[in-house]
Model the fold of this input.
Amino acid sequence: MRVLHVVHQYMPDHTAGTELHTRIVAQKQAERGHMVTVFTPVNRLGEFTAEPVVEDGVHVYRVPAGGRGPSAVFRSTFYHPSLAAAFAVVLAREQPDIVHLQHLMGIPTTIGAQIIQAGLPYVITLHDYWFGCANGQLLTNDTEMICAGPDVHFYNCGRCAVARAGLTTAAGLMSFPVAPIMRRRNALLRPIFEGATRIMIPNEFVRRVFAGMGFSTESIVLIPLGLDAPPELAARIARRRAERATGGLRLGYLGSIGRQKGVHVLIAAMNGLPLEDVTLDIYGDPAVFPNYAAELHTQAQHPGIRFHGLISRERLWDALADLDVLIMPTLWYEASPYTIREAFVAGLPVIASDIGAPGSMIRHGVDGLLFPPSDVAALRETLLSLLRRPERVGELRAGIAPVYTLDEHIIEVERIYAEALTGGLPPVASRF
Done:
């Protein structure tokens, strides 16, 4: 089978969950004998050469898209002729049997019509809520509150867009002229959503959110994301834990350094813990939101807080092996965070905000602990409970169940592809 993945960003330039998932799925599909291609824009100027780079058997087309600031990415949804032209070249050259849309942020919606005109079925994996929310996270830019999606006039989307541009004080007034643009954005995206043969979601929470925004869910199928443990991981972790100095609770955060991730909540909770017997290792790229990263450094008063910056995939497992507990203080509706799966594979209990997917992925009191989002006092008390009863960490570790494997995920995806190629629910070309 010839498979073309379309994604807004790709590794190694970007290392978030969607990018990681796309890469490991593409590589695994190539290992299983499929002809796999990845199409992705990159933040640079230049001409498209139409020559892929072959990475672990995958043909990767990194297409220059010019400056990729937030405004440029948003405009690309409506119009980006060079990306559309490059996509046409890749379609003609690679001749895929099926197109798999991983994420379309910053990619022109015209590719939907291009796929249909080429007579190709396509499927979608929903990694966040971008088809209904320009932020992708249903978290407002001005008030940092959870949002239910566009209101009837898209005024709330206009206000959010203005705030994202840095004009927070004028967000209310300027929302009215911006609202029609946001309405047009969703009008362009919804046909792509509705025209997919199948839409894959990692958990039922995502289905409920999209249904709440008025999207049809008849083509949605549940397929948990898969993850494989590196070879000899258990022995590697056991060795590093044996080598580690005894005593003390070692906490960790691994992920994006952005306000929506709630790292400031974690630091505030940590600041109120005893000065001894507890450390917090924070791994994440400070360059994405440098102002926020600088704020975190200023806020961090506890001597046990240590910032490590971006960590490579090669070092990830060693970093996890050095921890006792992973903390995920997110403020938004996480769809299916890889971090939780990675922690469970490494035998780490997870303490997380009870919001979005973490609430269904973590069994409170069995393999982790949940606390109300943004609640510094509740998180601090949760951490104090582990300091008072350190044996609780081992009890939670013993409750961790096996994680859905990558092979299990790929087999289900292949089944979806087969349905798409043999009929399934055909795309509706008239919607474009």
Observations:
- The radius of gyration is 22 Å.
- The longest helix spans residues 171-195.
